[in-house]
Amino acid sequence: MSAGFHRRAGALWCDGVPLARLARDHGTPAWVYSQSVLETRWKTFAAALADLDPTICYALKANSNQAVIRTFANLGAGADIVSIGEFARARAAGVPAKKIVFAGVGKTPAEMAVALKAGILQFNVESEPELAALAQVAQSLGRTASVALRVNPDVDAKTHRKITTGKSENKFGIALAHAREMALASRRTKGIRIEALATHIGSQITDVTPYRAAFARVAGLAKDLRAEGVGLTRLDFGGGLGVVYRNETPPDLSAYAAAVRAAVKGTGFGLVLEPGRWMVADAGVLLARVVYVKHGGAKRFAILDAAMNDLIRPTLYEAWMAVEPVAKPRAGARRAYDIVGPVCESGDYIALGRDMPRLADGDLVAIRQAGAYGAVMSSTYNARPLAPELLVKGRNVAVVRERQTVEALIALDRPAPWQRR
Ligand SMILES: *Cc1c(COP(=O)(O)O)cnc(C)c1O
Fold it and tell me: Do 134 and 92 share a domain, yes or no?
């Protein structure tokens, strides 16, 4: 049996299940994930870096469904979290606290306290006031926080401007020179122990050169600081590795691993990595139905029952995502479609001017590589309930998140007590 997404007699399947059957049984729109693809991605990544014995902390924000996290946790994953909500999700899915790194520019003292009491691996600290707050929280709890200073190496990751994080004008990280001062000044601060330097220069990175530059800068600073008596024991090189949505040529794993290896090998530093997108993008599709094909004045629109509230990447990042018919593609002339949703925004689209086999009302389509930054970014705009998430393993299908009901959505609100019911 073929694993993952593939065509059989022209129709699109996930593992041993036709996507058309999933649509019939569970409705659309729906997210469909392949457990075998998730596992293969994890194992492939881990194998490529095995000689460096990294702690691989899956970046939960890419897809934080419990079933997805659990798949990785069962393979030994740690977690990279950016909120205490993600902390709870990671713990609930079986990730040990000792393998959790806490990133993000705005951790609150309350969030710090929860993570500190649980004994997480490290706080990736992004500013001087954050370090001061962490020291204070730790002192008040009589604990010591393990800290990685997140360094901003000022390299251009050459990705979309909204997902680049390692330039000096981005809000993320601490400039190299400043990180050095902070590390030296905090050597004797009670409540914190600076154990690592971290960096994460962006997402959907398709060129290995910025990685090499960033890793070299961070490793260089770490060696200097160690020589000056800062007790650094490891480096955290973040995530960001790109995937193929269309015709990108991201570095293959061996090139990425070589860049990591070049900076770490022989230094004696341990290694933490935080891959997100690379682990999950390929493992998921968003399954949707064409409600109408509409011929506008100048254009042909395929209006789906999925929209920007489900999948916002095209709207937010101008992301290009493959859209494929689920049934055997129709023969004959292809057509150009604007593939849009029913949300009342001109920005509500999945693909523009997309050349496709002919579509008709009622057709099912699959939006591919939707496992990362898909369901997690959904909203209920236009009072559209959150779509369900399905996990497929061989011929088995599990609903790993129920479709939200309109009633449940409304029940989140309540009238003020002075309003008549
Ligand atoms: C988002 C993020 C990641 C994961 O990025 P991907 O591009 O999904 O691999 C890793 N580390 C940090 C600090 C992040 O913010």
Answer: yes
Same domain, 221 and 286: no
pLDDT tops 70 at residue 1: no
Question: What pLDDT score does 50 carry?
Answer: 97
Q: Do 257 and 309 fall within a single domain?
A: no
Q: Is 200 in the pocket of ligand 1 (CB under 6 A)?
A: yes
Residue 354: helix, strand or coil by DSSP?
strand
Q: For residues 338 and 352, is the Cβ–Cβ distance under 8 A?
A: yes
Marked catalytic residue, from 227, 331, 344, 416:
344
This prediction has a pTM of: 0.97
* Residue 80 near ligand 1, beta carbon < 6 Å: yes
Residue 14 catalytic?
A: no
Across-strand partners of 81? 102
Q: Which domain holds residue 69?
A: 35-277
Return the SS3 of 361.
coil
Question: C-alpha distances in angstroms, 187 versus 138, 146, 183, 195, 324?
Answer: 15, 12, 6, 10, 56
Q: Of 227, 246, 277, which closes a domain?
A: 277
Nearest residue by C-alpha to atom 10 in ligand 1: 239
